[in-house]
Amino acid sequence: MKHKGLYFVCPTDCLEYAINRTFGNTNCYYTSIGNSVVFDKETTRHVKQLILKHDLQEIAFVLSNTNPIIRDALENQHFYAVRGLDRIYNTIAAQKTYSDILWQKNSCLFTILSHYLNKKIKELRLQLDSSRFGQIQISGMIYNQSENVFHEIYSDLICRGYFSLN
Fold this sequence. Notes:
Elements (H helix, E strand, L loop, with lengths): L4 E5 L6 H8 L3 E5 L9 H14 L3 E7 L3 H7 L10 H18 L2 H24 L8 E8 L4 E4 L14
Parallel strand pairs: 1-2, 1-3, 3-4
Antiparallel strand pairs: 4-5
Helix pairs in contact: 3-4, 4-5
């Protein structure tokens, strides 16, 4: 049985159709550029209301492997000055540095996206940490545009913020 879900997506990815086709049509969406949502009190209140109103069972943060905002953060940084994107760009740039050291280049993007989405999952979990919302499953997925498939993100255990050898 497919559950109703809340999907955090970037509007530049246009993933709503692919999500509905794969996971069922009864979904809610929260869009923000590059999944840059900030879970302040007001946003968290709206998310909690959505969960209760629609009896949502699952939450997922989703980005495409071709997301133009993430690509720009990794390459040219043309949109760095756009309000709120500087935080994303700094997070992505730092993780790119760590990933370049620890991973092969062909899996670097998946690792960076996984780290970023794990960070968003943690932020939301901190706000929903209560007995009322504790049973909701929160996950992250990366949509592979060329394969037309969703992949679960790497575990937070793999996506570390830094790495140190003694």
